[in-house]
Design a protein that fits this description.
The chain has helices at 2-7, 17-20, 23-50, 56-65, 68-79, 84-94, 97-105, 114-123, 126-139, 149-177, 190-199, 206-224, 230-249. Helices cover 66% and strands 0% of the residues. It is built from 13 helices and no strands. It is mostly helical. It folds into two domains: 20-189, no CATH class; 203-259, no CATH class. Helix 3 (23-50) packs parallel to helix 5 and helix 3 runs antiparallel to helix 9.
Length: 277
């Protein structure tokens, strides 16, 4: 025992797959959420066909856009007689939150190569973001180094690819059998449930609760006065500002959610080069 102490920490003590996860860990983390994603994808496949569009429209949306709320908003515009430009603007406005997600994830993946970060951007969804940011924040006090970059990447890939496959398959099923589902089943109920499943577990601190409350109320109010798809972004900004103000006034300082934030200088063995991916 004395020899072990004298030689310092072993290689097995270095944060790695056990802490940061891997592909299998990413899959297992997101698996419970796929139960809600599948009916959401079903709706995304069935809705365009039910409104008279051909099957290739939902397939194209699901593979290229890969964003449920934006897909449904764009389909609503197109089937309502709106122009393609308006449909694109509606989808883009709703997806502005992905800019915030990307900025939040960026400090955690600076050691991941550019090609892989581009794939991460394509696979970015609300679910994958929530799982990854929570897991990475928990481990930030330990390491952001080259040694853990592959494990962060593989965890994200496991979660993102699992959701992507589920979304594509459920979209195709929705296209194939959507018209056979009775109208009174109202499968669209799955859409808000997917987001509630992500929201509730994060409401553990006062700033988070206030941000959720302010953001939700503001988004609803904005929608009621005619803000349309931009109401989501308006609510997001209002919630972020409210949460940040309360967090800055908290005498206890930032909690686990703020651990390890900064420019990454001096984190782990951050002096090494970018991992070649």
């Amino acid at each position: 025992m004395g020899d072990a102490a004298a030689t310092g920490p072993s290689e097995s003590d270095h944060p790695g797959t056990r802490e940061f996860g891997g592909f299998r860990a990413g899959f297992l983390a997101i698996a419970p959420l796929l139960v809600g994603v599948a009916p959401f994808g079903f709706v995304a496949g069935a809705t365009p066909v039910a409104n008279g569009l051909s099957w290739d429209v939902p397939v194209g949306f699901s593979t290229i856009v890969f964003a449920g709320a934006s897909q449904l908003a764009a389909i609503e515009v197109l089937t309502g007689g709106g122009s393609v430009a308006v449909a694109v603007l509606a989808a883009w406005t709703i997806n502005l939150r992905m800019v915030l997600y990307s900025a939040s994830l960026s400090p955690h993946v600076t050691r991941v190569g550019t090609a892989r970060r581009l794939l991460m951007a394509y696979l970015l969804t609300d679910q994958v973001y929530a799982l990854s940011i929570v897991r990475w924040h928990e481990q930030d006090d330990q390491d952001r180094s080259n040694a853990t970059a592959p494990d962060r990447w593989s965890f994200y890939l496991g979660a993102g690819l699992s959701l992507w496959v589920t979304w594509q398959v459920s979209t195709v099923v929705g296209i194939a059998v959507g018209n056979a589902v009775p109208a009174d089943w109202h499968l669209e109920f799955a859409v808000p449930l997917v987001f509630l499943a992500l929201l509730i577990p994060t409401l553990v601190r006062r700033p988070a609760v206030l941000a959720a409350a302010v953001g939700g109320v503001t988004a609803v109010a904005a929608a009621e006065i005619g803000a349309g798809p931009s109401s989501v972004m308006i609510g997001s900004v209002a919630g972020i500002v409210a949460g940040a103000l309360v967090d800055s006034d908290d005498p206890a300082g930032p909690g686990p959610d703020g651990a390890g934030d900064g420019d990454g200088a001096g984190d782990g063995d951050g002096s090494g080069p970018e991992v070649d991916r």
